[in-house]
């Protein structure tokens, strides 16, 4: 384990390698985080959580998931302000846990995001084909991939602006949904099936937990995964203007806004739809986009073109996720190269500060997801979801562990807490509780048959990362 008083491998590498540009502002950071988290999981998956856990169970699950995310982000804030480098999770784990773990965490995060790229493009292309049935899915896939690639290759500022506006579409849709839903709940907006204001009768009509206590915990993996993306603030810290002020503000703003958006959405859906009709397999729904509880609620408000509106929003959500995912994964690859754990070619940057080789190779890494069109979309999608969920859990665990060790070493060296520009509150409770909750979430994947193969595959990948690090980079005695 490295001591913070000694120059770390990361510090040395960053001094020797070309630096990325600090071109992001606080608004870019907040929207990058919101854009990474608000996606098809909310638009399509929220109803499934309600149908399994019940209305109040779903509300409780999202509150618990938000608190877990908040604990992890509080730990991230202390680390990212103290050491604002791109590829932060790997750098933190390298310095405060061990170099082998830092190497593994970096590759796990890269795997999680690169694995989802192809599926995001393919899913968006399938939705476009519903509008243009005579065009090929491959054509739309290539168009979307090219657009996201250009966004990431142009400049950090251009990427940040494109992600800002893609995320703004999603955020605006959620806000409009919550406001119109509140109007329907209190009788200001006409809603089919109710002659008077429904208020919140649906929330408790079948009891607090109609399916028992177990579904509350089994849906936590879905809920926790919904908050995946908030940690991108740490990835972007190395390219942010004035990180000492902007990173903590962005963490607080992003997590609490997500809590309001997610919990508000669940309350609206649960109040207006019977919980049995919220899930994607409910008989009240059709296939595809029409299975979204957002479409069901908009249709019952008699809003015209509800399916087309949500199809457009979900396409932008998919492209936003791919856009931010390519950014995050390429920065991890750049950081590995800057630390001397990949060939130096991967840390080459353009004049505008873009690690273009890392971006191009990461895009190629997303190509296996394109096979979902030929080899069973359901199987590949579910396993890639499991991979993405597990990698997120590993990264979040490493953040909590790194902060716990960092604070101990900081005080042991004679430093004062007042010297830290951002402090994780309630230490050591927050990092310990965050680590335990993330561990429990990760282990719950082993109990899910649909995610078991992804879970085993990730464990093998972790073992391969450790083995390759100690074989290639560990000093031989």
Automatic annotation (TrEMBL):
<feature type="transmembrane region" description="Helical">
    <location>
        <begin position="425"/>
        <end position="446"/>
    </location>
</feature>
<feature type="transmembrane region" description="Helical">
    <location>
        <begin position="165"/>
        <end position="188"/>
    </location>
</feature>
<feature type="transmembrane region" description="Helical">
    <location>
        <begin position="309"/>
        <end position="329"/>
    </location>
</feature>
<dbReference type="InterPro" id="IPR004841">
    <property type="entry name" value="AA-permease/SLC12A_dom"/>
</dbReference>
<feature type="transmembrane region" description="Helical">
    <location>
        <begin position="254"/>
        <end position="273"/>
    </location>
</feature>
<dbReference type="Pfam" id="PF00324">
    <property type="entry name" value="AA_permease"/>
</dbReference>
<protein>
    <submittedName>
        <fullName>Amino acid permease</fullName>
    </submittedName>
</protein>
<feature type="transmembrane region" description="Helical">
    <location>
        <begin position="131"/>
        <end position="153"/>
    </location>
</feature>
<keyword id="KW-0812">Transmembrane</keyword>
<feature type="transmembrane region" description="Helical">
    <location>
        <begin position="89"/>
        <end position="111"/>
    </location>
</feature>
<keyword id="KW-0472">Membrane</keyword>
<feature type="transmembrane region" description="Helical">
    <location>
        <begin position="383"/>
        <end position="404"/>
    </location>
</feature>
<feature type="transmembrane region" description="Helical">
    <location>
        <begin position="56"/>
        <end position="77"/>
    </location>
</feature>
<feature type="domain" description="Amino acid permease/ SLC12A">
    <location>
        <begin position="28"/>
        <end position="446"/>
    </location>
</feature>
<feature type="transmembrane region" description="Helical">
    <location>
        <begin position="208"/>
        <end position="227"/>
    </location>
</feature>
<feature type="transmembrane region" description="Helical">
    <location>
        <begin position="452"/>
        <end position="472"/>
    </location>
</feature>
<feature type="transmembrane region" description="Helical">
    <location>
        <begin position="29"/>
        <end position="50"/>
    </location>
</feature>
<keyword id="KW-1133">Transmembrane helix</keyword>
<feature type="transmembrane region" description="Helical">
    <location>
        <begin position="353"/>
        <end position="371"/>
    </location>
</feature>
<keyword id="KW-0813">Transport</keyword>
């Amino acid at each position: 384990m490295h001591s913070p008083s000694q120059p770390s491998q990361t510090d040395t590498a960053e001094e020797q390698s070309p630096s990325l540009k600090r071109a992001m502002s606080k608004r870019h950071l907040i929207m990058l985080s919101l854009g990474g988290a608000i996606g098809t999981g909310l638009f399509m998956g929220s109803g499934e959580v309600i149908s399994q856990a019940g209305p109040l169970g779903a509300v409780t699950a999202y509150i618990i998931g938000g608190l877990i995310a908040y604990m992890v982000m509080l730990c991230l804030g202390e680390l990212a302000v103290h050491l604002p480098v791109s590829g932060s999770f790997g750098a933190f784990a390298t310095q405060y846990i061990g170099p082998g773990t830092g190497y593994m965490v970096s590759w796990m995060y890269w795997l999680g995001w690169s694995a989802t790229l192809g599926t995001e493009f393919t899913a968006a292309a399938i939705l476009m084909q519903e509008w243009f049935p005579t065009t090929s899915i491959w054509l739309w896939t290539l168009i979307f991939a090219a657009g996201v690639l250009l966004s990431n290759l142009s400049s950090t500022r251009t990427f940040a602006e494109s992600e800002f506006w893609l995320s703004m579409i999603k955020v605006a849709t959620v806000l409009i949904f919550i406001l119109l839903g509140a109007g329907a709940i209190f009788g200001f907006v006409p809603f089919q099936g109710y002659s008077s204001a429904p208020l919140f009768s649906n929330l408790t009509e079948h009891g607090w937990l109609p399916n028992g206590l177990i579904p509350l915990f089994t849906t936590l993996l879905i809920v926790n995964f919904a908050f995946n993306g908030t940690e991108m603030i740490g990835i972007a810290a190395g390219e942010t203007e004035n990180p000492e002020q902007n990173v903590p503000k962005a963490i607080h703003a992003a997590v609490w806004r997500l809590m309001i958006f997610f919990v508000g959405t669940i309350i609206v859906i649960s109040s207006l739809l019977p919980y049995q009709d919220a899930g994607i397999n409910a008989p009240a729904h059709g296939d595809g986009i029409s299975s979204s509880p957002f479409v069901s609620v908009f249709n019952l408000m008699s809003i015209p073109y509800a399916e087309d509106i949500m199809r457009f929003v979900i396409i932008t959500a998919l492209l936003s996720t791919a856009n931010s995912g390519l950014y995050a994964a390429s920065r991890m690859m750049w950081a590995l190269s800057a630390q001397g754990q990949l060939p130096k070619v991967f840390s080459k940057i353009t004049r505008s500060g873009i690690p273009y080789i890392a971006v191009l190779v990461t895009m190629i890494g997303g190509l296996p997801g394109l096979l979902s069109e030929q080899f069973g979309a359901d199987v590949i999608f579910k396993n890639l979801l499991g991979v993405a969920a597990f990698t997120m859990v590993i990264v979040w665990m490493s953040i909590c562990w790194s902060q716990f060790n960092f604070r101990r070493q900081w005080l042991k060296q004679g430093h004062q807490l007042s010297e830290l520009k951002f402090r994780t509150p309630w230490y050591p409770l927050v990092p310990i509780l965050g680590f335990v909750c993330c561990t429990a979430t990760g282990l719950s994947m082993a109990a899910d048959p649909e995610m078991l193969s992804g879970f085993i595959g990730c464990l093998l990948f972790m073992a391969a990362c450790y083995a390759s690090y100690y074989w290639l980079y560990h000093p031989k005695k």
